[in-house]
Every structure is written in C-alpha cells, then in structure tokens.
C-alpha cells in the first residue's frame, strides 16, 4: 500500500514509489474501478451509511472522471501508485468531503479483487467472440473446399487419404473445447468479492446481494479471506489461454509446412506474409510463425502467476500486484492471435491439385488393401503382414500399387483378385462412413452440424 497520511510521517522514497507503482499498467482497469465504485456508492446510500446527496455527488464525479480518462484529459500520477488511488484522489479534488466517504466499508483489497473479476469477465466475452470468428473462418474455408482430398499424416508420414474439410474440422473441435474452458472460467469468475474488506468482513450494515445485482454477478463470495486472496479465476483464464494458443500453434505449424515448396498445398494472402531483406523470391509465413512463437510467451505468463501464488500465506500479500501485468499480456496476445488467424484463414487459398498429387504418393491405400483381405476372410494381423510385404516389394521394384499385376499381388495372398483394382482414394474415403469419419456424407453432415453450433 502507498504511504497514506496518518501512520507515516514521511513519504516513500522516489525509488520505492517507482518500484511499487502499478498505475502504468493497471490504468486499463479504470472502467471497472468506476463501475465498482458507483455500485458501492449506491449501496452505501441505500443502507444509510452515507447521505444520499453525497452518493449522488460521488456518482456524478465518477462519471466525469470516466469522461476525462476517455478523452485523454486525466493525469495519471505515478506517486498515486495505482488506478484505484488515482481515481479516488481526483474524486476528492472534485467533490471534497463527499469523495472521502466513498472508501467507507471497503478495502483496497476487495476493491482490487472486484475490479480484476469485472475485467476478466469482460475479456472472456471478448475472447469468446474472437474464438467464434476464427471458427467461422475455418468453417468457411472447409465448406468452400468440400471435395478436396489431401493426405492425412501420422509421424509426419503419409498415412491415409482424408477430405480437407475433415482436417479443418479437427481445429474447429479444438476451438470448441477452448470455448468450453472459457465459459467454465466465466462461471468461476462470476462471483462478487466486494464487501469482504481487507480480509475479515466489515462492521457496517452492507448489502452484498444488492452489490452483486448492480454489478451483474450471479453470486457473492462465501469467505472474506479467500475472496481477497483468490486468483484461481485468473489462473483458469491463463490455463485456457495456454491451451488455446497451443491449438493455434499446431495450426500455424501446418500452415508453415503447407506453404513450403516441398508441400505447396496452400497460398497465404500477401497481407499475412512478408518478404526477405535479401532474397527477393521469398514469401514468408511470418504471421503463422509469430503465432507459434507467442505461444511460449503465454505459457510463461501462466507459470509466472502459478509461481507468484504458490507460496503466499493468507490473506492479501503485495505479491498479488504481480498478477496483472502478465495477465494483461496474455489477454492481449491471445485475442490478437485469434483475430489475425481468423483473417489469415479467411484469405487462404488451396492448391487442391498439389494436394491430390501428394495423395497418390507413399502407398497411401495400403490400409485399404489390408481391410480388403479382411473382408475376404483373412485375419487382420495376417492381412497387415501380407500387405507390408507387398509394399516392401513394390517399393523395391519402383512401382506404385496400381502398377502391380494380379500375379504380383497373389504372391503375397491368394485372396487377392481382380476387384483389388477397384480400391481407390474415393473408395477409401467412402468406406470411412462412421460417426466422426472422413467419408463425404459424414463430413457434409459434420459441416452442417458445426454451422448450426456456430450460429448458436
């Protein structure tokens, strides 16, 4: 806390004031601080703790201060330490003794806890909007390329053919889980701590339920000590953000690979790429790479807050000032990443012919040959072994599976007959006609279902 008149005979040293100030970054909480103080003033007047006339002056002064901040006319003084003291000091300048009554039945501990909860609730809503926008971009590019076939990979080796929209819907599902996590985080955050005081509650006839209703909270905290020292909701946001950034990083990695000359599956819009300072031919996927790189930063912010919290005794400790700066960075990094990825995915162009050519490489239908033998009565393990030997033979002969004649097939299983040549990429896709599979009918149904979920 700052040196408030009364206990201290001298001001803090300037180096200490600079070290302990947080107004340089927590000033972004001004709207939430004013919102909380306005509700608090109304409650104080309603309960007869301060005169109604004073509450009216306070609320009018707070609205004027909001205007000053938003119009760039407010002076943020470092010596006032944080946004809460800055607003209160300006309120006292404007309203005199009335402003001095605002902090009745309130500690800066529960005031800060309230402000960061209000802020987090707002930013969860903003995050969810950006998540939905990115899902929309992914869904749009998937719908526009329903029939495009690409290789599916395991271990970065060509595995089985899949439809491109099926691949994209995997990211849609990842982001849907991210949405679930942020909604759960909102639930955890939506509990009102004001009225807890410094740590023990307050000796005034306050109405916490009224405050919760005024501020849009579903419930009030149940323990005053926990209320002022709890930052679990921020950790939940940080953790959800870290997982979401991991999903974006996986997508970024694929975009980087797909733009390489070796793959050449997609073309990213020039607005989302950069050139080289020395090599004129380069078109670098820098936006995707930066998204991949910023993921580590968000991980670090989560670990930073976990480390800050891990050794704190109850209740409030000044260490908790360190909860905000990295938290704000996570919010900004995640939301800007979601926004830029939505634009990048929305402008991405597919090179479907190159994708199709890649499907023809790597004996991609080998699993379908094993399934063919199983349908002919062979056990899967025997079928797997026979096809493995067949592929090894074909690779040694420099032939594709299509180039093998029936006698060559039958060297490895007598169950092979002429209908083996009916196996194709299209038949492979169509055969995966199970819920969650890559058959055209299942993918079309999944696209429709995803669009319906998105519209809700």
Q: Tell me the name of the CATH homologous superfamily of the largest domain.
A: Fumarase/aspartase (Central domain)
Overall, the morphology is: elongated
What percentage of the residues does DSSP assign to strands (E)?
under 5%
Number of strands: 6
* Helix and strand sequence: HHHHHHHEEHEHEHHEHHEHHHHHH
Give a structural overview.
The chain is mainly alpha-helical and about 450 residues long. The protein has three domains: about 90 residues, Fumarase C, Chain B, domain 1 (Orthogonal Bundle); about 230 residues, Fumarase/aspartase (Central domain) (Fumarase C, Chain A, domain 2), CATH 1.20.200; about 100 residues, Ribonucleotide Reductase Protein R1, domain 1. About 60% of the residues lie in helices and about 5% in strands. The protein contains 19 helices and six strands. The strands form three sheets. It has a two-stranded antiparallel ribbon with strand order 1-2. It has a two-stranded parallel ribbon with strand order 3-4. A two-stranded antiparallel ribbon has the order 5-6. Helix 9 links the parallel strand 3 and strand 4. Helix 3 crosses helix 9, helix 4 crosses helix 5 and helix 8 runs parallel beside helix 19. The longest helix is centred in the first third of the chain and has 36 residues. It is elongated, with a radius of gyration of 30 Å. About 35% of the residues are buried.
